[in-house]
Amino acid sequence: MEYYFIAHAKNKNSYEIAKFSEYKEPDSVWTLRDEKRIVCDCPGAWRRRTCRHMKLFNFWKKNLDSQIGMALWFDGDDIEYKRMFDFKQVNTLLEAV
Ligand SMILES: [Zn+2]
After folding, report:
1. Domain boundaries in the chain?
2. How remote is the CA of residue 31 from the centroid of ligand 1, in Å?
């Protein structure tokens, strides 16, 4: 199963979204900027101006109040989530990248 974590990045209004599958290390990490509109630096977002990360980010912000430590994943077109880690564990994971 693939799931995603979102955490605050060092820069203001920036967030990191990490995708995990079966390994402890993330498969990929992208940066989202939340300014006038949300911008993701993944290749998919370049061409289509939207991507899975932006969808997850919007869901996280609106429905989960930007809580750290939530694992999110897609179930078809729906987004599911559950709490998995505490704040420190997620930051440690992201810093290890
Ligand atoms: Zn993206």
Report:
1. 3-96
2. 8
